[in-house]
Amino acid sequence: MRKITPHKDRPMKHIFIRVPEDVLEDLKRIAPLKGMGGYQALIKFYISQGLRKDLRELWEAEHGRVETVLTECGIDPDQRQEILNRLKEDPSSGVDVPV
Q1: Residue 4 in 3-state DSSP?
Q2: With CB atoms 3.0 to 4.6 Å apart as the test, which of 2, 5, 45, 64 could cross-link to 60 if both were Cys?
């Protein structure tokens, strides 16, 4: 699975978005309160939070029944947990489950 870990050496891409002026002013006011260097860092933080939530939901939708199926097949709880842990670590799935 892909880890969503902030690395300073990750390639970055410039994007341009239009944001209402009042929202931008609010972001500028909130950023220092959240310990952010500026509003852009706060925007990236908010995007990251939403993305992690959505990736977790995606993983659960794709793998949510795994534990039920393993239980129905009589797999013991320790083995079920090991299987679920391995699924979370599998780089081929392309999705990381934030823990």
Answers
A1: coil
A2: 64
What span, in angstroms and rounded, lies between the C-alpha atoms of 47 and 43? 6
Handedness of CA 91, 97, 98, 99 (dihedral sign): negative
CA distance 67 to 84: 7
Give ∠ CA 57-80-59 in degrees, rounded to 5: 15
Angle, alpha carbons 4-6-27 (nearest 5°): 105
Q: What is the pLDDT along the chain (99 residues), one digit of tens a residue?
A: 444 555 678 898 999 999 999 999 999 999 999 999 999 999 999 999 999 999 888 877 877 778 888 888 999 989 988 888 887 775 444 445 444
Cβ atoms 52, 4 nearer than 8 A: yes
